[in-house]
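Reminder to self: tokens first, then the designed residues, so the page reads top to bottom the way the pipeline ran.
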């Protein structure tokens, strides 16, 4: 019995020692310098209200994805941040991975790399597989769903089901050069969860390190009073990612604080026009500091993110000023001056 115990212990220690450690600052910086300045958007096709509608077989829409990533390519965007969903995987594991492959082929044809997101604490806590609801007129992200939901994010934090999901995706795509980075958990602690999200956050990093993908891992900082979560995210991410919807003065303070980590940085959510966070005042700031810039929203669609978070328009009429998004469905920019600026800064980076 003792021999069996010690053999098992040695195997466990050996396995853990093979798990990837956090990248060194030098490795992270070398990786970052291999890429052009990273510029792009959080992407979901305009025909999908949420991640489940995007990824389920019945609603997967490669034609729209191809067309709308073409809009992104036309202004020089080279990176898209795309949310996955564990329920879509659970319902159809091989089909889900096949659809990821199809998406990646489309994105690659437009010279766009992808940053995939696993878990998410934002909006509706009760995701359900199957047909998704219709959008509520004039309400921002009226159908977006959390992953895995709540209380599932606590109850399933150490479940074999979520571990198998994360490791299967990373083992399948962990050496895929079309994938830029793995964003393991979007806004942990949101919806007043706070430290209730810590167990799943720690576990998804552990699972990902054991899967050992060639791409870097990160989880973006987003609310500065979540001390424990912020500390863990910052000290375990290979690349520092963060969200900022504040004005340039506040954003600059955040940049100066995060620079102290000595790692490359990507702002994975920004651009809220009615909060004085615009392409005109924020995109040049990010480029000047060599920080990747991923704004929220590409094409106005079923997510309704042209409407501000807390300012619904019950009639569903178009707001005077869009909150997020760059293009209308036909590919016309909401503001041509913004599209010109984005393209100009991206072209300069390529030269």
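Designed residues (351 positions):
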């Amino acid at each position: 019995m003792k021999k069996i115990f010690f053999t098992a212990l040695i195997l466990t220690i050996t396995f853990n020692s093979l798990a990837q450690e956090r990248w060194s600052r030098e490795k992270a910086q070398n990786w970052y310098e291999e890429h052009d300045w990273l510029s792009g958007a959080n992407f979901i096709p305009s025909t999908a209200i949420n991640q489940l509608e995007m990824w389920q077989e019945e609603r997967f829409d490669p034609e729209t994805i191809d067309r709308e990533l073409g809009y992104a390519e036309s202004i020089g965007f080279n990176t898209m941040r795309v949310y996955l969903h564990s329920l879509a995987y659970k319902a159809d594991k091989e089909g889900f991975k096949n659809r990821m492959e199809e998406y990646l082929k489309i994105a690659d044809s437009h010279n766009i790399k992808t940053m995939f997101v696993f878990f998410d604490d934002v909006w509706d806590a009760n995701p359900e597989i199957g047909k998704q609801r219709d959008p509520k007129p004039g309400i921002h992200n009226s159908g977006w769903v959390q992953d895995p939901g709540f209380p599932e994010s606590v109850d399933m934090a150490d479940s074999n089901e979520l571990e198998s999901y994360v490791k299967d995706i990373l083992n399948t795509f962990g050496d895929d050069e079309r994938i830029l980075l793995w964003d393991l958990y979007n806004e942990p602690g949101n919806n007043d969860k706070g430290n209730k999200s810590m167990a799943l956050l720690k576990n998804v990093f552990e699972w990902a390190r054991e899967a050992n993908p060639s791409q870097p891992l990160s989880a973006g900082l987003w609310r500065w009073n979540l001390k424990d979560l912020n500390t863990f995210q910052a000290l375990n991410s290979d690349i520092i990612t963060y969200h900022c919807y504040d004005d340039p003065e506040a954003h600059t303070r955040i940049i100066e604080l995060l620079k102290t980590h000595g790692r490359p940085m990507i702002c994975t959510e920004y651009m809220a026009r009615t909060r004085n966070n615009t392409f005109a005042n924020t995109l040049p700031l990010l480029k000047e500091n060599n920080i990747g810039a991923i704004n929220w929203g590409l094409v106005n669609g079923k997510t309704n993110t042209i409407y501000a978070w807390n300012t619904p328009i019950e009639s569903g009429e178009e707001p005077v000023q869009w909150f997020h998004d760059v293009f209308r469905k036909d590919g016309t920019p909401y503001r041509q001056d913004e599209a010109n600026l984005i393209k100009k800064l991206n072209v300069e980076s390529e030269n």
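The chain has one domain: 32-350.
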